[in-house]
Amino acid sequence: MDLKIKKEHKNFKMPTKATQGSAGFDCYVADYFFSDGSLWYNLGFSMELPEGYFALVTSRSSIVKTSGIQANCVGVIDTDYRGIWHFVMRPLNKWSEQLIGEIVQKEDNLIPYNIGDRCCQFFVLPILDITLSEHSSLTSTNRNGGFGSTGK
Fold first, then answer.
1. Nearest-CA neighbor of 30 among 19, 15, 17, 47?
2. Residues linked to residue 120 through DSSP beta bridges, in sequence order
3. Count of the separate structural domains present in the chain
4. Domain for residue 139, yes or no?
C-alpha cells in the first residue's frame, strides 16, 4: 500500500517505523504552538489515505516520561481528510500556566517534545462496512458487569 504524503512545513520529517515489526509510524514535530491550554504539535504533513482506510493517531509509550497526556485520547483521521496533521497534549501539572502564549525551551523540561523529536504514532486500518440494527433483546452471557468487574 502506498500512502501519499504532502510536505506542509519546512521542518517536516517523513514518518518512520522504529523496527521492522513496528505496527505504527512514528511522527516528528515540525513546529508547535499553544492554544486554549493545550500544546499543539504540527506534524508538518497532510496525507491522502486510500479509500476504505482511516488512521489512528496515538501517543508513543514515551509519553509516560512527560507531564502531559494526549488531549483526545486517540485521534481519528478519516479517509477524506486532507488537512495538516497535529498531535495535541494537555498538561498534568502547571506547565500550561507557564506556557500559554510563550515559547519555553525543552532544556527547561517543560516542553515534552521539541522540533525534530518523535511525539506520536499513527496506524492505518481498514474501514469496516457495518450496519446497526435495533433489537429488543440481546444474547445473554455470563458477563454482566463492567468497570473492573472481572478483577485486577
1. 15
2. 27, 59
3. 1
4. no
Helices and strands (H, E) in the chain, number of each type: 1, 10
Q: How is residue 115 written as a grid cell?
A: 522540533
CATH assignment at residue 60: 2.70.40.10
- Quick check: is 151 in a domain? no
| Residue 67 is assigned to a structural domain of this protein | yes
Indicate the residue type of 126: P
Q: How many other CB atoms are there within 10 angstroms of residue 61's CB atom?
A: 8
For cell 486554549, name the residue.
36
Range of the domain at 118: 4-126
Which tens digit of pLDDT belongs to each residue from 106-135? 445 567 889 999 999 999 999 999 999 999
pLDDT digits (tens, 9 = 90+) for 44-93: 999 999 999 999 999 998 888 777 788 888 999 999 999 999 999 987 76
